[in-house]
Each structure stands twice: as C-alpha cells, then as structure tokens.
Amino acid sequence: MSSKESASNNQLFVRQFMSDFFHMGAVLPSSRYLGQAGAAYLAQKQGRVDVLEVGSGTGSFTREIVPLLDAGDRLDMVEINTDLIAYLRRRFETEPAFQLKPGVTANFINSDVRGLAGRFTYDYIVFSLPLTNFPPEMVQSILSLMIERLKPGGVFSYVKYAFISRFKYLFGGAATQSAMRQNQEIIGSFADLYQIKQRLVWLNVPPAWTFYWQKPDVN
Asked: Which of 13, 69, 76, 171 has its CA 20 to 30 A from that of 122?
C-alpha cells in the first residue's frame, strides 16, 4: 500500500471510530502482524476451504487472508458499516494485494453478522469485532452463532486489545463493570470448551491478544 493509500485508510478508519465506537473498538486499523496472527491457522490449510471474516473494516485482516486462498476457496466478508465495506470493495478493484486468484469466490456482505443469511458453514472464521463493547446477550448470541457456523475441526480466531479493557473497567461506571464481568464469564465459558491457543501481538496499536478456538471433529 502506498503512503497516500495508507493515510486514506487511516483517516477513514478514524472517522468511523469517532462516529461508531460501539462497532469499531480500535482507533487505528490493525497491523499486518495482527492480521497474520488472525489468519495463522488458515495459512496451514490443506485442500479447498470456506472462510468467514467478521468485521472486515478497511481490510487489514482481509489483506492477509486473500493470498492464502486458492481456486475453489470461498471468502465471505461481513461488515455492518456501509462506508467501510464500500471502501473494501474498491480495494479489491484497485490494489494488487487484494487481487484474488482465479477460481476464488468472494462475497461482500453489508450486514449485522447475526443476520447472516443462508446456512453456510466454515472451515475458518476470522473475527475482529470488539466483543467487550457489546451487551452480554449480544456476546452470547454472536459466539453461539460462530460455533454453530464452524465446521467440525474448524478454527475460530478473534482478537482482544490488551490494556483497553482494563482501562475501560477501571474508569467505567457500575453498569459498565457489571456488563464487562458478564461478558468475560460468557467468553470464558466458550474458551473452556474450545480454546486451543493464544498469543500476544505486540506490533499493533494497541497490542492485542489473538485467541484460537477449535470445534471438535466428529470423526
């Protein structure tokens, strides 16, 4: 990406952050190192795969996913923000890093992930929505849906920004703290069942944890 494109990407992201912190969660796009961490298990794929990216934003994770896809693979990108998904579409049309290999199917879905149409299941789900920003009932609903849509043996990855949650908890009111405790309990209950690994990516603003969950294989 050129310096001009990078500046445009950052400016758009900051504008959307200022107008919609609830869905954005971070003030700057994720680094390529965090994007690579999110797609780490996808990078080990064998054979054709179906991939769901949730919260595609300006494409920081998408940029790392696209080169890993081969003929026959499917990528569904879900982004609720209309401006961001329009920007992402333009990147696929104009930037070399977003050029798909022949035979790869890509779908842009401008929607709340909870309204995801169809009954597709996925080998990999790369998730970057700010779960700790959401009400507990929404967190429960979204994570239940993600596990439902994951194929047996499939891997779900999600990120959590280091330090931000603690800062929000310390300076939030009683209602915020209660919701955050409930969210942590919900996330922890899923992690107890599915988590296989976690790693901290320091080269990001802010640093972020990447967590990996795997749905048990029925075989």
From this structure: 13
The string of DSSP letters for 163-213 reads THHHHHHHHS-HHHHHHHHHHHHHHHHHHHHHEEEEEEE-SSSS-EEEEEE
For residue 4, CA distances in Å to 8, 9, 56 come to: 6, 9, 21
Handedness of CA 192, 77, 160, 142 (dihedral sign): negative
**Torsional sign, CA 31, 144, 211, 73:** negative
Read off the pLDDT of residues 48-63 as tens digits, 9 standing for 90 and up: 999 999 999 999 999 9
Question: pLDDT, tens digit, for every residue of 180-210?
Answer: 899 999 999 999 999 999 999 999 988 999 9
